[in-house]
ABC transporter substrate-binding protein/permease
Amino acid sequence: MKLSKLGQFWWLALLSCLVVLSLGGNAQAASDQSLAQVKAKGTLVMGTSPNYPPYEFQINEHGKSKIVGMDVEIGKQIAKDLGVKLVVKKLSFDSLLPALTTGKVDMILSGMSPTPARRKNVDFTNIYYTEGEAILINRTDQAKYQTKKSLAGQKVAAETGTLQYNLIKQQMPASKLTGMSSAANLILALKTHKVAAVVKGTASATAYAKNDPSLMAIDGHFKTSSAQAGNAIALKKGSTSLKVAINQSLTKIKAHHWIQKRYLKTAGKYLKVNTADTSMWHYRDYFAKGLEYTLLIAIVGIIGGSLLGMLLAMLRFNAVRPLRWLATGYVEFVRGTPLMVQIMFVYFGIGMIVDVSALVAGMIAIVLNSGAYLSEIIRGGIQAVDAGQTEAAESLGLSKGATMRYVVLPQTLKIIWPSLGNQFINLIKDTSMVSIIGVTELIYQLGIVQADTYRGVAPIGIAMVIYFVICWVLTRLLRYYENRLNRGHARQLN
């Protein structure tokens, strides 16, 4: 068939556009170094929240903690195909996307659904596993709650930031939506009747119901769009080459049906390991490790915070106005923002410039926060010292520095000692905040034990006892030194 000159013109124009687009796409792919960077460093860092069996969870194997599950097996295969080593990084689910966008992890493999909202910030691979959504209820309520409509007016919970959370909001408007950041807390709330039901992926809901006879799973009959259906791997925006390589691995995994034939079966075996012995003594190493990190962070926070607090307090009395303004501004800013936000800023924000581990970031944030509060305690103590003491020291010829060191600060310490003690005890409890960035302190380990054993209350009781013992011992030490200070002051008066 012959074309007119006008037709030929439009065909040439169309071909030109296709060539330009192709060249542009090739140029973009060529500029993308995501796959090359992974191969160059020899590791593929997988971000995950290991409290979502059978996708990812932890087991106590020969006294050592190990992250296992279907997603971990998929990650191993991808790393093997890329010729690199898989490194699994633990984070709370809410922290996974910030970790990806700031380069802390190379990919998120954590049962994540590629919702439109998430696609705006990250890229997703092809769907690797598709399942429905189930509703977990207490077995004693099975006569009352048989469909999602029967839960009208009742509290229904899901993890914040998940597809299930949005499905409740959209398709169960008559129910009272409750969001929580931990899968373990969801199950605990359900078993204690704080909520009537929990919405989870079918595989996870089935795992919980199978391992806990007090729970049962019912079909949610939720409607999901093709863009939301199933789970995919999240990658940083523009990671085209890495995305192509991972999709090739996923295609091979799906072609061989390894998820059904291997990975889910492997996850099931690991689940039996956890439920074989759910005693708290069996998980003593978890609590011991959590205690170790809690004490380490607390000690660093107390020492570092005290030094920073003293520096800030001295700057508040400095004759140079800019230094006073700087110290005042810092104290007001830190005291006016939540500690959790500060921890996330240090880890994800500053971490974009200087790569620091979660533990180091947590300790830095605790020091910066406690320093601001301690500076106000120290400043108040200095102002409480009788002005006559300073005048007497100056009349004896002591310099300002010597007066502060030998006269004011010793009396300040006696005045502020009870307040310092309260701040130190609060600091020990504040260490629990660093669990949000995956530091394995006591609260983080508590959540892992809950998820692994399907027991909600017992791990909380153990953690409470440990915190109480720490604070009780610290209180006794503080009182001992307070009595010594008082006796020393009494001898000086006599």
